[in-house]
Amino acid sequence: MVIEGKLAIGLLCVLLGVALTSYSRLTRASESNFRFTILGIWLFTRIGLFIAIYGLMGIDPQSDVMGYYLPQGKAAMRGLLVYRDFSTSYAPIFPYVVASAMKWVWASPKMIVLLAILADGVSLPLWMGATARLLPMVDARRAALLYVANATPLVNVVFEGQNQAWVAAFLAAAAWLYARGRVRLTAVVLSIPVVLVKFLSLLTVPAFIFWSKKRIAFAGAFAVLPLLVYGTLLAKGVDILVPLKIEGTDRTSGSLPFLATSVLNSFGVAVSPRVYDAITVLALGVLVLWFLRQNPRLPPAAALWALVMTMMTLLLFSKKAYTAYLVLVFFPICALVASRTSDWLKSAAFGVFGAVAMIERTLWFRWLGARQLPEFTQHPVGARLSLHVVTFVFVDLVLLAFYGWLWYLARAQLRSLSADPLRSSVAASREQ
Known about the structure:
Elements lengths: L1 H21 L1 H4 L3 H26 L7 H14 L16 H11 L5 H25 L2 H12 L2 H9 L4 H15 L4 H14 L8 H5 L5 H21 L6 H7 L7 H11 L6 H21 L8 H16 L12 H11 L3 H25 L4 H5 L5 H37 L1 H9 L3
């Protein structure tokens, strides 16, 4: 029923996204009417579903909430020291925030889901405020419509309560500040999720720093909080690399290494996970060098497209590539699609992408038992499982094709900005 339910949600979101983006009066409405519409859709799809699922239906939270967030929050409640007394793949402050929320607000794992919803509610108006300054009005509004109607952020936040929404909220605040030329504050805000949520947020920094005139000030402002927090832990003799060690052993579906490992293993070729790690680092390094080769006076909108390129590169090449990571930059992805496409068919295709990304992880866990493909195809049940394997490979290929498409669109946007002397001159006049 879980798979069927998510498929139904995905289909409904596709239809909703097409309906909203095809109704041109929405994008031409007054600012107050448009914001009221977005708020209404968000309240229905987030708060309304939260009340229905966890209140009326009495369903308990699932996924990482029960498997990771709750046990780590309870460990923090007992006064244990992160990384020393208990392990976590998240940033050091995260378990203590979970513990505080459950102790002082609501002693239920549903509180963790509510935190994700609140973070999503904070990020949405901030993203809208940022894109309103960085993009044409119609594109910014279509991005908001695509976001509230997409299955990926909806399910990740309401059904799974994952902390990617936390990072997205700080990223949205950083984009809002960056669009207004507040370089140092942008850097400070970007540094918060590094100590509060997860190391993964470090990947967002290049998108902001490379086109800033105040790179040294940016780097200095960004470094203060991580140095203070991680320096304090080091002084206590704590191994601050615990998250990286845990993450380094994980392997997921939804990436080129997953499919490559399956193909190579079928020929008896074993590839060390460290090889894939090296390829990922190389791919990200090449991307950073490509960023540096672009016009250094690009307008602030370049940060949005750089965020998308960075995330797509990670998801394509990393051996750990949960589709949930998309939530970090999902609004910029929506802004990209809104900027490059306008017809209903492409809006529908983007809705399909959201549905595929939303359900891929579920299929991997329920059909493959979170294993590599060769192990699964050798399962004795046979024909039924083979059909699942073929279907799942198709789903992953579709997902990777969408990643490649989004990477291409983001690259085209950046190149157009770099080649446009008018926009570059406008960027040069701004205090970035």
